[in-house]
Specification:
The chain has 170 residues and is of the alpha+beta class. The protein folds into two domains: 4-39, no CATH class; 54-93 and 103-166, no CATH class. The protein has helices at residues 25-35, 67-92, and strands at 4-9, 17-23, 54-56, 59-64, 110-114, 125-131, 136-137, 141-145, 154-157, 160-166. The strands form two sheets. Strands 3, 4, 5, 6, 7, 8, 9 and 10 form an eight-stranded mixed beta sheet that branches. A two-stranded antiparallel ribbon has the order 1-2. The longest helix is centred in the middle third of the chain and has 26 residues, at 67-92. The N and C termini lie far apart (48 Å).
Length: 170
């Protein structure tokens, strides 16, 4: 389809007619072709918010951590915290050059890190939440989760938004 002239009546303007010339329907049709059925199903369209997608993690059980679980999780969390802090610094620094680029969003301060399984592990993985800014655990709880998200996913664990780092090796 080629360019068209469109006529719109603005509500509340006393029926004034406005002529918009040059509506390019080719661009709309290309977008529809690329997105396929995502354009037609409600709630599945492309989101342009710029915010990262958050994966909700189903917690099957939570219980106090054993000293061994704390030690394993702390080693893994400290290893991952170095990488997360570098990413945060890169996101906050300005990028030099002729054309300024939009920096990726800074990762959350909290990371979800795997720990050793307890005696009564009920889910796929056992995780703990580590605050990279204070370098301490958010709580002394271990969360058994139904299914682990992919590494580097932003996850919602027990009401806390965290970057899932798995075993700490990013």
């Amino acid at each position: 389809m080629t360019r068209r002239d469109a006529v719109f009546t603005f509500a509340g303007s006393g029926g004034v007619m406005a002529f918009l010339t040059g509506c390019d329907m080719d661009a709309v049709q290309r977008a529809e072709a690329q997105l396929g059925d995502r354009m037609t199903k409600p709630g599945t369209g492309v989101q342009f918010s710029g915010l990262p997608d958050v994966v909700k993690v189903i917690v099957l059980a939570s219980y106090p951590a054993t000293p061994q679980q704390v030690q394993v999780a702390e080693q893994r969390a400290r290893k991952a915290a170095v990488v997360v802090q570098k990413r945060r610094a890169a996101a906050s620094s300005s990028i030099g050059g002729a054309a300024p680029k939009k920096a990726p969003p800074a990762p959350p301060a909290i990371v979800a890190v795997e720990t050793s399984a307890g005696n009564s592990q009920q889910g796929e993985k056992s995780i703990m939440l580590w605050n990279t800014r204070t370098e301490s655990f958010v709580s002394n709880k271990v969360y058994d989760i139904q299914k682990a998200p992919d590494k580097n996913d932003i996850a919602l664990v027990a009401g806390t938004t965290a970057l899932y780092v798995g075993n700490g090796a990013l």
